[in-house]
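INTERNAL AUDIT FORM
Audit reference: QA-55
Scope: verify that the stored structure record matches its stored sequence.
Auditor: D.O.
Record contents follow.
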Amino acid sequence: MVNDKQGFDISHRHFSHLFHVYPLKLEDPKSALATTSLDRWTGLTCGSVGGCPNGFTFDGAASMSGMAGRQDDAAAFMIGFLLSGKVHMSTMYSEGSSPCIESPLAAANSLQEFMLDSWGGRVKLFAGLPSNWPEAVIGNMLAEGGFELSARRQAGKTHFVQVKSTGSGRSFICDSDMIGTLECYPPFAGFIDHRNGSFELHGLAAGDTVVIALASTSTKSFVIDPLPGDPAEHNYWGTPKNQDDNVVECRRAYNL
């Protein structure tokens, strides 16, 4: 994917030759060209899913895999990054003695894109989440076009999505896994339900807020609150106040 006369036969951790796929999204990430190029790059550079040598490679491969509909691969790349031994409790990343922050920031962005992404004029809701991540909540995340989205996923399916427009005369098109008859709360004249998980909202004014959910939803309680955490994993990225383990870890990571 460099050009028709230039092969890509030597691996490299960066993916600038794929920028028109990600992050520019000028090429459909599910196209044969995009997926073949992704496989070629990760095959040369990583050897296998989760086997990448550098943080930035993990992050780019995770985002592109999620956009391509390869959710399990996306999660494997992300978990591979977190378990690489190069991410420290300080949230910094290091290769040898050189600390940096761009790879953890890119990883955080990849996780957000698993839950909410926009390309091709459409918003993709929870499109990058694998089946073994059944619960997810987002609150007031911004999507292309000036929309604030809040949504809940439970038991592996989207429960509802709230859409708030920050401007007037806006149109919103969303792809979700809420396949079936959808309802809009409150009723909105510009709501179009395609009954395949996709829906549209046209003519939204600034501040207009609606909730979309399956008509068959047994409970109409649309609440956004944090998911309960696992106490065994609390303070994963640090230690409680008045403990100095994190300081020791930082010094070890940076040879201080």
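Auditor finding: record pair retrieved intact. DSSP finds five helices and twelve strands in the chain.
Action required: none
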